[in-house]
Amino acid sequence: MKDRENKFLQIQPNGRRKGTVTFLSSSAVQQPEDSDIEEAADPVPLKEDEEFIEAVKEVKDAAINVTESSVKLVTTAVTKGPGIIGRLVSAVASKELRDDIKLRKKYYISDWTDGLKNKRNCIPAILFLYFACLAPVVSFGTIASQITEGSIGVVEFLISSGCAGMLYSIFSGQPMTFIAPTGLTLAFLSGLYRYCTLQGFAFLPVYTWVGLWTSFFMITVGFRGGSKYIRYCTRFTDEIFNGLLSVNFLYEAYASLKRNFMLADPMNLSMPFVSLSIALGTALSTAKVAAFEKSLYFTSKVRTIIKDFGPVAIILAFTALNQFPGIKKFGVPTLIVPSTFQLANGRDFLIPFMTVPEKVRWLCAFPAMLLTSLFFMDQNISARVVNKEENKLKKGAAYNIDMVALGAITGVLSIFGLPWMCGATVQSMNHVRALTTQKFNEESKEVEIDGVVETRATGFITHAMLAATVRLLPLLSVLPIPVVSGVFLYLGRKLMTGNTFLKRILDSCAEAARLPKTHPINVLGRKKMNIFTLVQVACLASLWTFKQNSATAIFFPGVIGLLMAIRKWILPRFFTKQELEALGDPSPT
After folding, report:
1. Model pTM score
2. E strands along 368-493, which residues?
């Protein structure tokens, strides 16, 4: 585009009267979006008639046309000023939140239309994401039903995941992020239920108050721009946190398969081994078809179709395989879901939370602080994974809008006694990858990311299907649990991809000459790299210990928050700035 120069001519009296709003000082002046001008120049007074005439000629030569609509815009803004809602938001919201709103509102319509225009990408993405989201929802719902003795079960998880996901798709700032139940939230839920049982409190009313306090804290953090502090959460923290999520997925799959061996007749282990075969077959086949786009076989279009629809086909294929008489005779366990739609223990939708003593209501603020720290980390880390530069997203991040939206959703879920949702890293990564278009680089001979279809439609429809699944409960009962375990194995392994912390554990035994010159071993030496890696291993082990111990599970979100403190104040005492940069973990600015 040809460079151009914007000029403004301002005519005003020498003495400015009180309350006068000049053309250049008015906030109504809008420069073109493609303008290179950062700030308007200060007005220059014209003292002589010749200067005035020269200025008019200069403006004319620059071909600046002030249209009638522009004049109306300026007049309206100056005379009316911001509305009541605008003044209220400006007074309460931080600059960071206002900037997020300003950034994302211009894309809101395209967030929907882009998805509708790209049906070829979105339809297979929705089908895959439905099963990818359904598996953890049903699995975590089954586990939650056991640890809460039926207070929260599969039906509640389906309703919550579906409705919360739809609301988040509508109101969030970055719709590419998915919210879902996570193993870490489930661990907190287990600790809270155990505490209520020991203290003799009714679980669901206390659950509601903890959720309401959490909602208040999260909305406050979002309105005050608190998400900016996530910059102190560096790669050191991200990789430990993602390592915890990965280990949790793998552990849940392992625990499910181990249970089959524990319950089976020692003299007949056919069922456990068949279940193990189905789980491994599901995981390996899903990984294979998900990576099929990079293979050499068939045309690019066929490879894309296999990559998009393959994971869904694998799940359906192993489910159908389990219905064959030769396999069905082994009695492979299937999902245990209620045959009809009803809430756990036949309770009402609304929780009688006002029955909780006033003192207990205030005390619920303390576990809510811990839960807020967990949600803050989980939500923002998931959003950062989505927004990272490698994904080539174009519409921008809006962390504070996300926090406010999730906080409001948490409050609504709590009132109805539905399980909490938060940012889910794996599902969010799958959402981005499912909508990623790729191209083959002729020079590098490698497949590269061409772009991502950034849309709210896929998230909304996927979660609408999850909510509608409550009407298909009998069909879910034919889904083998080992298939769910296989999906967990696949997700846990996939979450390890790109985690340099886990890679460094393997590299600690590698020969230095076989590693790149830029590798930390060759730059810093093996000892220094291993010390840094051992610190991360110790942090991960501590988190896992807190999470797995029912007596301390309620406190482990606080330990996650300590990771940021360790990185900011402790590690710099033992590693220089240059050493941390060599380890791929530069200090935040």
Report:
1. 0.77
2. 422-423, 436-441, 446-452
